[in-house]
Amino acid sequence: MRLARAIGLVLMVGILLVGGSLTTEAAEEAEAHGGGWDLLYRVVNFAILVGALVYLLRKPLSNYLDAKTEQIRRDLTEAAGKRERAEAERKEAEARLAGLDREIAEARVKGLAQAEDERRRILQAAESEAARLAENAKKEIEAELELARRKLTARAAELSIEMARKKIREQISDADRRALFEKSMDKLGEAR
């Protein structure tokens, strides 16, 4: 209601200003032409026009201004809500930032602990692998030594047999050989 009165007051001041300037112009023109009725006709015509405009435009203008006022109120309420949400988000972000240093420190400590655990695990795995490789190498060396012993024993036996053959060839004659052969045959016969 106050808005409608304010609009009416503004329109009246506007009419008076415009009407006053028109009246002044009309008076000057009437003096120049010499007629006062013309001035009166213009003023009445202007007053009727202004009255008709006020009568016709008062309701639509009032509705428009009321709607605009309501829209501005809604926008202000919405803006206040957005401002409150933004303030809450800002405070939340500040709280997160304050906790971020602590989280970084915790993550660093956790990362160092994990790295140390991983280092220990890798070192233990390397030691285990080294022990396994040493055991395998020891077994291979023992196997090679055993194989070398067998070869050496076999070679020694071959050399002994060869030396024994040589001695036997040198010391035993053909007659001794025949006697040994016959003796061996007799023993075989007895064994049967």
Shape descriptor: rod-shaped
Share of helical residues:
over 70%
* Termini separation: 150 Å
Number of helices: 3
How would you characterize this protein structure?
With 192 residues, the chain is mainly α. The chain has a domain at 139-191. Helices cover 96% and strands 0% of the residues. The chain is built from three helices and no strands. The chain has helices spanning 2-33, 37-171, 174-191. Helix 1 (2-33) crosses helix 2. It is rod-shaped. The termini are far apart.
TL;DR?
The protein is mainly α. It is 96% helix and 0% strand.
Q: Would you spell out the secondary-structure blueprint of this structure?
A:
Layout: H1 2-33, H2 37-171, H3 174-191
What attributes does this structure have?
mainly alpha, 0% strand, single chain, 192 residues
